[in-house]
Amino acid sequence: MMTIKEIVEITRANEKTIREKIKELYPGLIKKGKKTILNDSQVENVLIVLKKTGIIELGKSSDELGKSSDVTTMNDVLTSLNALIQTVTIQSQNYEKRFNEIERVIENKIEDRKILLPAPKKSDRDNLNQIIRSYAKNNELNFGEVWGKLYQEVYYRLNINLKIKAKNKKLSIIDFAENEGLLPELLSIALEVF
Fold first, then answer.
1. Is CB count within 10 Å lower at the N or C end of the chain?
2. Is this model's pTM higher than 0.85 or not?
């Protein structure tokens, strides 16, 4: 890929002439106030047209080149193109290295932040289950007995018979309590009683 100025430098032709030829070959490619970049195929076509119209002379013999040193040969154009390709390749590799460094730094920062994040909170249902299980284990009771005691406390404190209401809705007791938004109250009672 080359700009118009690079083509001018390589061919040593008049910039206005080159612009006109590009406009003829590729209408709409040149936009006012914007840098025009031609791909390799477009550059090659422009050079061929410039040669056919006699604006530049490519492929002269070595004797003729000795007489006219200001005319660039096709080999010079290709050498310049190869140098440009090498430069772009090196720049691309440098950008890739820099991108990989930035990516590594971001990944490290993300890992560092994970360490600083608080642990996820347990749900009321999980906390309640943990309290019931712990109490049952420490007092060598059946889990069902401890849950029954909690439901009894709920009945006396909140005047809600969880067993009957859950049965009527065809849900488990804990699912009914969760659906009705009663888990915070159950948790508070469990913390006090157990």
1. N
2. no
